[in-house]
Amino acid sequence: MAVKANIDSGRWGDPYLDLSTYTADADLMELNMGPQHPSTHGVFRVVLWLDGETIVKAVPHPGYLHRGVEKLCEKLTYVQITPIVDKNDYVAPMLNEQAVNMAVEQLMGIEVPRRARWLRTLLAELQRVASHLLWLGTFGIDLGGALGGGTSLFMYCFRERELIMDLFEGLTGSRFHYNTHTVGGNRHDVPAGWAEQVKQVLTFIERHIDEYVAVLDHPIFEQRTMNVGVIDAELALGLGLTGPVLRASGVDHDLRRDAPYHAYDEIDFKVPIAHGGDCYARYEVRVAEMRESIRMARDLIDGLPEGPLVGARPIKTPVQVKIKSGQAYVALETPRGELGTYVIAGGDNRNASPYRFKIRPPSLHSVSALPWVLPGHQVSDVVAILGSLDPIMGEVDR
Amino acid sequence: MAVDDPGRSYSHPLFDTLERFPGLDLATTTADKLLNWGARNSLWIFPMATSCCGIEFMASAASRVDFDRMGSFTRATPRQADVMVVAGTITVKMAPRVKRLWDQMPEPKWCVAMGSCAISGDFYRDIYSVIPGIDTVIPVDVYVPGCPPNPEALMAGLLVLQEKIALKTAGLKTVPAGRPETAKMISPRIKRVGHPDRMPEIDAAQCAQAMSLDLTEPPDLLAAFTAAQAAAKAAREAAEAAAADAAAADEKGGEA
Amino acid sequence: MTADERQARLAAFMTERFGVEADPWPDGGPIVPVEQHVALAAALQAELGYTLYVYCVASHWPDETPKGGDLIPEHYEVATGLRSVGAGSHVAMWRVSVPVGAGVPTLADLFAGADWQEREQYDLVGVVFDDHPDLRRLMLPEEWVGHPLRKDYAIETGHLPWR
To answer: Who among B129, B219, B225 is closest to C143 (CB)?
Structure first.
C-alpha cells in the first residue's frame, strides 16, 4: 500500500511503468548498458528507456555471474564452505568467512576465545579500509574526466590497498582468498613484527586519505554527485538497504554498535552518518568510515589480548562439525552493509552439510534500488549512481 | 581464416598490403619481423573481467605491477584490443556475450585464461550454470593458473604470450607430440561448442546456428535436441526389446 | 530497549494478536498461517517499528515419512525477517508453509525490497508469490527449465548449447 502511494505521488520512480501507455515528449529510446561495460563493476546489465535524454524506466538484469553457490554449499560440509564464500564478496572476503562461521558457531553453541574475537574484529576493520579504498579508486574512474583523467585516484588508492593486501599475505599466506577463519576460532596467529607493520601502514594510509579528499574537493565532482541519486530513508528501509548507503540516507543504524558481535562491545567507536541520501553523502560516509576504521584498528592491535585462538576443544576435522536440526540467521556489518547467513541444518553427509544455505547479500539489495532511483536522471548519472551503491557482482548473483 | 580453425597460425593483415607494395616483396622477411615486433610489444588488452580475478587484473594494471610498461594497456571496447583476458567465472548466461565480444575483436587476436574458473570452472565446474572452462567456447593461448593469480603471475602470462607471438605459434592449439596422456589431460572435458563429440544429436546446420549466436532461436535448438534425444532413446529401447525377444525366443528354442 | 526486551515483546505480540504459539521461541521463528502473512508484516512495520526488510528464504521439502510418524507431504517453507533499526536492533522472523502449487501472498506492497527477493526465490526455489507485480526469473536466463534449489534438481544439469 505504502509503496504504491509513493509511486503514484511521484516521490519514487516507477519500476512497473507501462510503456505502451506512456506518451513521450521526445523520442522514446531503448538503451542497453552491459553486461560487459567498464563502469558496471563486473557483469551487470541495465536496460534504460529514455525520453530524449531523461530516463523514464530502468530494468536491471543481474545473474550474469550466477554460480549456484547456495546449491553447492548444500553438498559440502560446514568446514568446506568457508573457502567457497570467500569468492562471493571478493572485495571483502574476510567478512564473508566470518559470517558463515558465526552462523555455524551459533547453531553449535561454540564460544570463540577472546583473542580470536579481537583478531576477527581487527581483520574486519582492515578489510573495510581496503574495500573502501577500492571503491574510491573505481568511483574515481567512473567519474572519469572530473578527476584529471580519472585513473590518478585509482592508482593512489591501489597503492594503499596493496599495503593491506601485504599485511593479509603476511598473516594468512594468501593475498586474496584467505580461508583463515574456522569454526570456533582462527587458523593463523599473528606473526612476529606484524603489529608494528600494521601500525606503519595505518599511519601511511591515514595521511594519504586527506590527499584524496583534496583531489575530490572539486566543483565538477560535486556537480556530478550532489543531489544525484537521492534515496530517502523510507525507500532505503523498505528496500533493505544497509551499511553506508542506509547511513547516507540519515538512518543511524550500524550492526557493529546496535547488535554487537566479535569485540565491538569492548571498543569505542563512532558511526558516521550523513543526511543527503545522494551520491555525495555516500562518499562522505565511506571516507569518514575509513578514518574511523583506521582509528579502531590501531586500538585493536594495541589491545590484542593474549590467549588461545581456538576453543577448548579445537575443531580440526570436517566430521566434527555436525548439526542435527535447527535454523539460524546471523548477520554482520560488511563494508556494503548487512551480510546475513541463513542456515537450515540437517542436510546430506549425515548432518555435516546444511539442508538449505542462504546468503543475504547487501549488494543485491543495493542494486535493487536502481529501478526506483534512476527515473528522472540523465544517462551519465547512471554510472555515478551505480558506482556510489558499491555493488559487488559476485555477491549480487552468487 | 576461421577463428576456430585449429591450424590457424599468426599472420598480420598489414602483411598482405606490404607484400603488394612494389619493391617490398624482396624485404618481406624484414617486414614480417617488424610487424611481429610491433604486435607483441603493444598488446592492448580487453578485460573480460567477471569476478575475483577482475580485481587482481585491476591490481596488475595499477601502481605496483603496472603492465603499461610493457606496452599493454586496457581498452574498454573489443574493437581496439588484441588480447582478451578472461578473468573470472563464465556462466551460461554470459557465455554467448563472451563469444560475441570475441568475434568482434579484429585479427590477429589472442586469449589469456586467467584463474582456475576461466581455465576449468574450478569448484563451480559441475554446477548447472557454469561453463567448465572458457576454452569450450573460444580458443585460449595462455593459461594463467591461480585462484586468483597474483598480478605477477598475470604479468608472467603476458610475457609468455609475447614469446609465443615472437615464435609465431600463437593461435596454434599445439598438442605435445608423442604424449597422448598429456593431451588427454589438457584437453577440455566438455568439447567446444559445435564439436561433434559434444553434441552428436545436433547436425552441422544447427551447430552453425548455435555458433552464429542468433539469440532469438535457442528454444528451437533445445526442442530439436530434446526430440533427437527422445528418438535416440526410443531406438535404443526398441533395440533392447528386440534383443530381449530374441533372447526369449532362444530360450524357448532351447527348451523345445 | 535491548534486543532481549524486543524479543519478549514480539513473542507476546504474536501470541496475543495472531494466536501463534511463540513461547518457547522456535529456531527460525514460529510458523504463521498463510492468510496472516501480510497482516503480520504490516502490523510489525506499522506498530512495532520493524521497518527494515531483511530476508526472504524459501526452502523445498519433498515427501518425507519420519520414523514412526505420518507422511509429511511435499511443501515449501518461506521464512521472512524484518529488522528494527537503531540501538538494540532485533530481527523479527517467522515462517509460512504452503503445499506445492499454492502461492504465498507477496509483501511487495509493503516493502519495495520484497520485489526482487521474492523474484529470486521464485527463480531458484520455485515458490509462486500471489499478486506479485513482476514475477519473472531474476538470476537465470528466461528460457531456463526448472528451479535449481529444489531437492529434485541435480546440481550437474546441463544447459545446451553452452554447457
So the answer is: B219
Distance from CA of B234 to the nearest CA of A (A): 33
**The domain spanning residue A246 has which CATH number?**
1.10.645.10
Q: Which helix (H) or strand (E) holds A157?
A: helix A151-172
**ipTM of the shown complex:** 0.89
pLDDT band at C96 (very low <50, low <70, confident <90, very high): very high
A277 lies in the same domain as A386: yes
Q: Are the C-beta atoms of A340 and A329 separated by less than 8 Å?
A: yes
List chain C residues with CB under 8 Å of B195. Answer: none
* CA neighbor of A104 nearest in space, from A72, A74, A82: A82
pLDDT bin (cut points 50, 70, 90) of residue B170 is: very low
Closest CA to A178 of A307, A119, A90, A118: A90
Which residue of C lies nearest to B190 if distances are taken between CA atoms? C163
pLDDT tens sequence across C107-123: 988 898 899 999 999 99
Q: Which residue of A has its CA nearest to B88?
A: A65
C140/B221 CB distance under 8 A:
no
Nearest CA in chain B to A138: B58
By the 10 Å C-beta count (0-12 exposed, 13-18 middle, 19+ buried), A104 is classed as: buried
Q: Which of A16, A44, A61 is the last residue of a domain?
A: A61
Per residue in A81-100, pLDDT (tens digit) is 888 888 888 888 999 999 99
Q: Do C120 and A240 touch (CB under 8 A)?
A: no
- On the CB side of C41, CA atoms within 13 Å amount to 28
**Helix (H/G/I), strand (E/B), else coil: A43:** strand
Contacting chains of C (3 CB pairs or more, <8 Å) are A, B
CA-CA-CA-CA torsion sign (B70, B75, B80, B81): positive
Size of interface A-B (CB pairs under 8 A): 87
Residue among A247, A258, A290 nearest A128 (CA) = A290
**How many residue pairs from chains A and C have C-beta atoms closer than 8 A?**
123
CATH topology of domain C3-130: Beta Polymerase; domain 2 (3.30.460)
- Do B50 and A42 count as a contact with CB atoms less than 8 A apart? yes
